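User: Sequence in, structure out. Go.
Assistant: Echoing your sequence, followed by the structure tokens.
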Amino acid sequence: MVLDLTSRTEKLLTRLGMWGAVRGSSSLVVALILSVALLESLAPSVVRLVSPGPVNVVHVFAVGIGLLLGMIGYFAGDVWDRVVFEAWYGPQGKWLDAARRPFLVFPAGSALKRARAQAAQALPRKPDTPDTEKGVYREAVKIARRQAERWERIEHPLILSRFLRGLLWPCLSVACLVFCSAAILPGLGAATEAPTFLLAGGGCLALVLLCLVPYSHLRVEHMLRLYQDVAAHHTKKKPERR
């Protein structure tokens, strides 16, 4: 189902000629807008707390903090690749041997493990890095990038995954901020506002999950396409060498 949606999204973006926009700064703009929108949605509750104080200051802080969280989330997005995705689907990932979908929504890793092993055998030059498995990915990328058409198809899921990745930190940061605020509200004599903040925090966590699941599928799909392409390319070239 996720892969069907990926294919449809690819076709739509190709038809509209929007891959350049998705690859460029649009993901940063969306991350900033999302962060500001999430905090602005809480502004009415904060205004009730500070009333009759300076209401405009609340909105200024919401926009300022939202922009800051959006910037941090966008430029620190690769942490999700290096830490979260690596722990799940890296060479020693805990879901790499899974034949069934973890939690019924995340992609199974067994196909990725097989494709990585086939690509490692197909590489004309073996990785010269201490971490052989990561070296396989780097060498595979070098080979695939030699032909623009091949790399374009492989890169599309990667571009989409990075777009979603940029939304993860803003949603998670706002959720943590809101939950911390809900925890201190009773001490400020505003316990009646705590349920609103808790509900908002839960909504932010739901957004994290809604972005994390397709991000994982897209990242796995990118690597599958990469490894399968390298293995198929080597198979086609092998008879020529003989």
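User: And one key feature?
Assistant: Confidence is low (pLDDT under 50) at residues 238-242.
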